[in-house]
Amino acid sequence: MGGPAICELADSPDIDAIGEDFERSIDDLRTAYSDEHELLQEACRTWIGVLEFFGTPRVWRTADAFARRLITEGTLQSFPDDCKSSGNSPIPGLEENLAIALGGQHGWLENYVTEGHLAANG
Predict the structure, then answer these.
(1) Helices (H), the chain
(2) Which domain does 37 fall in, by range?
(3) CB 3.0–4.6 Å: which of 22, 41, 55, 65 could bond 83 by disulfide?
């Protein structure tokens, strides 16, 4: 769920472009939670946890530095030490976007849960 969370926190309008990543995450959760209600609860908990993780400034800075390095070099053999950030000072806009993302309704997750259920049993 990392890619979609990054898009949401970056206020990217193209979050649907990485829907397959999200669907695979739900499918992974489905292996542990066969009950649709429990699956939805766990999907919500996981989504919120991922948002909070990437909403941490040092994590956001590290992900950004890594992505920029990957774009520049095209490939990486390992996680470069110089991409790791220890700075946890506020990042303009990130805290507000995290609050908006966490304050929003997550009812749209139900579509991923029920559509996957229909596909698996359809």
Answers:
(1) 2-9, 19-30, 36-54, 57-73, 94-103, 109-121
(2) 2-121
(3) 65
Distance, CA of 36 to CA of 42 (rounded, Å): 10
* pLDDT tens figures, 51-73: 999 999 999 999 999 989 999 99
> CB count, 10 Å around CB of 103?
7
> Helix or strand or coil: residue 57?
helix
Q: What's the chain's Rg over C-alpha atoms?
A: 16
Calpha distance 33→37 (Å, rounded): 9
pLDDT tens across 19-50, in order? 788 888 999 999 999 899 999 999 999 999 99
- Asked whether the CA dihedral 77, 55, 12, 107 is positive or negative, the reply is positive
Count of structural domains within the chain: 1
